[in-house]
Specification:
The protein is α/β, with parallel strands linked by helices. Helix content is 38%, strand content 13%. The protein has 16 helices and 13 strands. The strands form two sheets. An eleven-stranded mixed beta sheet has the order 1-3-2-4-6-5-12-13-9-7-8, with helices on both faces.
Length: 494
């Protein structure tokens, strides 16, 4: 295989080829960096590329293999890291002028684990400021664009991670998800995105600059997980990054999920599944709803499940959700940051932080979280899985926080995220997979929600759907152009 064709391999295939010496880590990194050089000016997935570090890591892994040592399960696999996750010695700006020069000394636990498994970090990926939005623009870096249509958003807040994988710059990226920030961009970019159960993947230390000690992760809402092109790659990544760590007081103390077996087994026959196009309260684009419903029906007609149209009796708790986000971030610390950098910050973030939040609103947020957990626990007593569209709309124009109308109705700018945030309140495991494409050729995601701690069934369901509705060979035009050029180069080399 020559040049950028390597970029079309899955992470699983790259690791196997590197371990068997069919590919060298240097070849893999060279291909990834060439793809980045070609596409970054169009996509803007990376805010902090790390080419020299990536080459150095490739050299170390190559030496390990030459010495007969085990290079790890992700040997030679290029990975992209969301710019809210720490990579020691590399800038972690988080899309904010306030953090533009922040360089942490240590890796997040998940980055430690990726490196130990032989992965090669290509760089940090772009986010909205402090990840407080479902899109990919911020005051510091170029706006991330969707590889399927570069006039449109890739979603967010793991915006650059999704764009990097969808365009073939990396087969695997890490995102974080406190209200849909893995699932939404994965859906907008035609990818697999997994939000594992809360506590499955440890969070530590989080983005802390000593100048702003109040800024921290949203520990009661946030999950870290993989964004990939295949379910097998997501399972491989989770087999590396999941598992307890005493530094995260909320990490689940047992490591009882066989991620790769679940993805291989792909067994959901006789599962009882609920499908809801709107969770009973959301406003959803009709084309999105129809594509998701057709995907859900295939679970019954092809996979042997029992699918019923039913929604849990949820309330639209978005106001309470945002109260939890703000207070999880430490309102005092964030307001100090705004006081110093107000005019260089995203207006929607400043407005959110300067609201006259009250103790009652914080209490309402916690009560809403309890209410949602109770409702979903009762609902999932009757169902093995819940299926919904992932986002309420297809990808929309860059520069917006959200469309002002959905299905002909005027809506607030965050209303289109209404289908994802409830499962951050509950901590349930959720995956999104490509359900199909709109008439305009834009990806639509299917959200697969599991019972409390039932990550294995979610992976199995995602894998089962992937087997009957494969999307592996469907690439955005921007990546197809690279494929044609690489194929032409390979032909000339023969």
């Amino acid at each position: 295989m020559v040049g950028e064709n390597i970029c079309e391999l899955s992470a699983t295939d790259i690791a196997a080829a590197v371990r068997s010496r069919q590919l060298s880590p240097r070849e893999v990194v060279s291909a990834a960096l060439a793809r980045m050089e070609r596409l970054e000016p169009k996509v803007h997935a990376f805010c902090t590329p790390m080419p020299e570090s990536a080459r150095a890591t490739a050299g170390r892994i190559e030496k390990l293999i030459a010495d007969g040592a085990d290079p790890g399960p992700l040997a030679g696999v290029p990975v992209a890291i969301k710019d809210t996750i720490l990579v020691g010695g590399e800038r972690c700006a988080q899309g904010s002028v306030a953090y533009a020069s922040f360089v942490p000394e240590e890796d997040d636990i998940v980055v430690e684990r990726l490196k130990a498994a032989g992965a090669i970090v290509l760089g940090k990926t772009n986010v909205p400021e402090f990840a407080y939005a479902g899109v990919g623009h911020n005051p510091v870096f170029e706006t991330t664009r969707n590889p399927w249509n570069t006039d449109l958003t890739s979603g967010g807040s793991s915006a650059g991670s999704a764009a990097a994988v969808a365009s073939g710059m990396a087969p695997l990226a890490l995102g974080s998800d406190a209200g849909g920030s893995i699932r939404i961009p994965a859906a907008f970019c035609g990818l697999v995105g997994v939000k594992p159960s809360w506590g499955r993947v440890p969070l530590f230390p989080g983005c802390r600059d000593p100048r702003y000690p109040g800024l921290s992760s949203w520990e009661f809402l946030e999950h870290i997980g993989p964004m990939t092109r295949t379910v097998a790659d997501a399972a491989l990544a989770l087999s590396v990054i999941a598992g307890p760590d005493p530094r995260d007081r909320h990490s689940i103390p047992c490591d009882d999920v066989d991620w790769q077996d679940a993805a291989t087994r792909a067994d959901v026959v006789h599962s009882r599944i609920a499908f809801s196009s709107d969770l009973g309260y959301a406003v959803v684009d009709p084309e999105v709803a129809a594509i998701a419903e057709a995907a859900a029906q295939r679970f019954e007609t092809t996979l042997g499940c029992r699918v019923e149209r039913e929604a849990p009796d949820l309330l639209d708790e978005q106001t309470a959700f945002w109260a939890l986000v703000v207070f999880n971030s430490d309102l005092r610390g964030m307001r100090a940051l705004v006081a110093e950098h107000r005019h260089a910050m995203s207006p929607h973030l400043v407005d959110l932080l300067e609201r006259d939040w009250t103790a009652e609103e914080l209490t309402d947020g916690h009560l809403a979280q309890k209410r949602t957990c109770r409702t979903m626990a009762g609902f999932m007593d009757r169902y093995d899985l819940l299926l919904t569209p992932t986002a309420a709309v297809p990808p929309f124009e860059i520069g917006l926080l959200g469309p002002e109308t959905i299905a002909g109705r005027f809506v607030p700018p965050t209303k289109w995220t209404a289908l994802t945030f409830p499962f951050n309140l509950t901590g349930q495991p959720v995956a999104t997979v490509p359900a199909g494409w709109t008439a305009d050729g834009l990806p639509v995601g299917l959200q697969i929600v599991g019972r409390h701690l039932d990550d294995e069934r979610v992976l199995a369901a995602a894998s089962a759907y992937e087997a009957i509705a494969p999307w592996h060979d469907r690439w955005p035009v921007i990546a197809d152009e690279c494929h044609c050029q690489a194929a032409s180069a390979e032909e000339k080399s023969k």
